[in-house]
Structure formats: structure tokens, C-alpha cells
Input
Amino acid sequence: MAEPLTTPRLAPPAPDAATQRLTIVVHSGDLDKLMAALIIATGASAMGTRVSLFFTFWGLNALKTGERAKGKGLLQRLLGWMLPSGPEHVPSSRMNFLGLGPRMFRLLMRRGGVPSLAELIDTAREQGVTFVACTMSMDLLGIDRRELMDDIEYGGVASYLLAAQEADTNLFI
Output
């Protein structure tokens, strides 16, 4: 059996002008792509890079807690029922097979000692990675702030663009 992989848990870097910065637009809601975004984010943060994740469209599903806000219109309620309700329920980009594929991947990850998506999210938050939820996408998809994790930031495209202008590296996943 493979030795479990561990994610380094370091204190967030002290802000200064010399610190490297990374922004990642998290557009995809697919398990494998979300894993890639979080692995890159936690790795960069562990190396002292200041990281900001901008969750938009389907990527917002990774920030959901499973709570359903009241007072939505019919279309927003329908979207809420059709979309995954948190990191434990996101599909894979390939080999989804009505949910069997992601279950298989999660089992293989657990057996291989690879942290789950939820664990990577927790690690990133502990490391001081900034999580920003796109307010325009939230409005469009009918996602209420009460349905998302606590202690995240909210902003539109201007927020992301300002962070991207200051960053050394910008990724889109």
C-alpha cells in the first residue's frame, strides 16, 4: 500500500511587496479540476506564495454547505436542485457514470492517502488562501450567501482583475 501523501501545513506568508502572488479562476465544478486548483493553491501557499481563488459559475458548487436558502424563484430553486450541494457531491469531468466515477476516484484517493476535496479546502483556508465567490455568478445561478461557507469574500470581476494585476501568475481552471 502506498504511503499516504500529506499536505504541508504552514503559516500564511506575511504580506510584503516581495511575496509572490497567484490568482486562480475556479470556473469548473468538476472534481478532478477542483482538485487540481486546490492542490496548486495549497502547494503554492506552502511555498510562501499569496494565493487568491476566484470561484465563478460551476466552481461555486465547491463552496456550498448543503444549506438551501428560502425565498427563491422557481428557476433558481430548480437550479439549486440540479447543481451539486458541496465538495462531496461534485461530478468528475470524465467517467462520471451517473456518479459512480467520482465515488471510485474518492475511494482510490482515500486508499492512496490523497486528501479529499473538502480536506484540501480546509487546508487552503488554514494556510490563508483567499476564497472569493463571484457575486454575478451567484446572482445568475440563484446562490445565496447563506448557502456558502463562512469566512469567504465576495466580489465581481473587478475584484478579480485587481488581484490579477498584482499577481505574478494567473491561472484559469
User: Anything to note?
Assistant: The longest strand covers residues 21-26. The two ends are 31 Å apart (CA to CA). Helices lie at 31-46, 74-82, 100-112, 117-126, 135-141, 157-166.
